[in-house]
Design brief:
The protein is an alpha/beta fold. The chain has helices at about 15-25, 35-45, 80-90, 95-100, 140-160, 175-190, 190-195, 205-220, 225-235, 235-250, 260-275, 290-300, 315-335, 335-340, 345-350, 355-360, and strands spanning about 55-65, 105-110, 120-125, 165-170, 255-260, 280-285. It is built from 16 helices and 6 strands. This is Nicotinate-nucleotide--dimethylbenzimidazole phosphoribosyltransferase.
């Protein structure tokens, strides 16, 4: 997947230097809790003992899904294009939260069913207007998947070239919780029905119909699939673009902030193809969409926030930005014991056991019940 984009691992020895810098700050070791683990991850992603979290940019990808013809969403497909207009006018949650978080919002039409009029501030992929109905045929051709991956990677590379240090991802697409469930199941091997949820608000009856439609789609391409094959089978264009953006951001040496269920499915596909992108990923929040927890557990990731969001649009990623900034400020601005002339205590009494510290600072620890041991994303190769 995007094999021309090389991903350079964090420099040898950087992890040890950052851990030591964190431990020498004027605080009892470990007392800033998960902000310490976040600072380590940010420093490794940005290749620095003194990383900056700004500028931060949200890349927001919209796309439509032919699968909605099977009645898998509570909302009409037209809402995707209508929300694009809302994003352009500045009136969506993503706009409000981006302003509140001090992040630039860049909007991408990865494949809205449209027609969407060109507008300043809307970057259009021009690949196709929505995916095919995955219950009947493959959602995308291999060439369309490649083009969408490239579109997303180019968006991340452009943001990095413009100076972005932290690249948050978000999406909008009626029906994309179905594509994410199908993709997530095919790539992870998690049973599909465990990943099917209400999405943007299906009731119990609708959920049964959604499950039946997704089982029909999965039956066309049964079993585990390679990430690109899964993206072709199930879509969508905005999901492939986000997978490309993960790889683009990692290749540019930037931190990428993963949002909710749909964004995590995209990251899962990207990381299955390019595991070396893992140290660049920060998982922002746990969506109320029930399948999200399973995808996070499969990845061995514990997100920063749990605020019962289930909107998408990058809202959870934007809410995590102040924590990421605080982690950067800890590394950049806090004095060391020596600098501040503060006496170090009987440190061995305070320092948690080495294993506990390592677990806390790597991958933020795997959540309880994680199905299999996962690679330490901060591990040096
Ligand atoms: O990101 C999430 O965790 C999330 C969970 C549920 C729904 N959404 C949003 O809701 C839409 C997909 O829901 P649906 O029911 O149309 O598949 C899409 O626009 C997503 O941004 C997003
Ligand atoms: C109104 C609306 C806004 C959204 N934003 C992301 N997904 C969405 C789904 C709906 C239905």
């Amino acid at each position: 997947m995007l094999t021309d984009l090389a991903i350079t691992p964090p420099p040898h020895g950087l992890e040890a230097r950052i851990r030591r810098a964190i431990d020498l700050k004027t605080k009892p070791p470990g007392s800033l809790g998960r902000i310490e683990a976040l600072a380590l991850r940010l420093g490794l992603a940005l290749g620095s003992e003194a990383p900056a979290a700004d500028p931060a940019v949200l890349l927001l990808f919209a796309g439509d899904h032919g699968l909605v013809a099977e009645g898998v969403s509570a909302w009409p497909q037209a809402v995707t294009a209508q929300m694009v207009a809302n994003f352009l006018a500045g009136g969506a949650a993503a706009n409000a939260f981006a302003r509140a978080a001090g992040a630039e919002l860049r909007l991408f039409d990865a494949g809205v069913a449209g027609p969407l009029a060109p507008a300043p501030g809307l970057r259009q992929a021009g690949i196709r207007a929505g995916t095919r109905n995955a219950a009947r045929e493959d959602a995308l051709t291999a060439a369309e998947v490649t083009a969408a991956l490239r579109f997303g990677a180019d968006a991340a590379l452009a943001a990095a070239a413009d100076g972005a240090q932290v690249i948050a991802l978000g999406e909008m697409g009626i029906g994309n919780s179905s594509a994410a469930a199908l993709l997530g199941a095919a790539v992870s091997g998690i049973a599909l029905d465990r990943l099917v949820g209400p999405g943007a608000g299906l009731g119990a009856g609708g959920l049964d119909a959604k499950r039946a439609a997704l089982l029909r789609a999965a039956a066309r391409r049964p079993g585990r699939l390679a990430p690109e094959a899964a993206l072709a089978a199930f879509g969508g264009l905005e999901i492939a673009a986000m997978a490309g953006a993960v790889i683009g951001a990692a290749s540019a040496g930037r931190a990428v902030v993963v949002d909710g269920f749909i964004t995590t499915a995209a990251a899962l596909a990207a990381l299955a193809a390019r595991p070396e992108a893992r140290p660049f990923c920060i998982f922002a929040h746990r969506s109320a969409e029930p399948g999200h927890d399973l995808l996070l557990a499969h990845l061995g990731e514990r997100p920063l926030l749990d605020l019962e969001l289930r909107l998408g649009e990058g809202t959870g990623a934007l809410l995590a930005l102040p924590l990421i900034r605080a982690a950067a400020a800890m590394l950049r601005e806090m004095a060391s014991f020596a600098d501040a002339g503060v006496s170090e205590g009987a440190r061995d009494a305070d320092v948690p056991a080495e294993g506990a510290r390592d677990a806390a600072a790597s991958a933020e620890g795997a959540p309880g019940g994680s199905p299999a041991p996962q690679p330490d994303p901060t591990e040096q190769p």
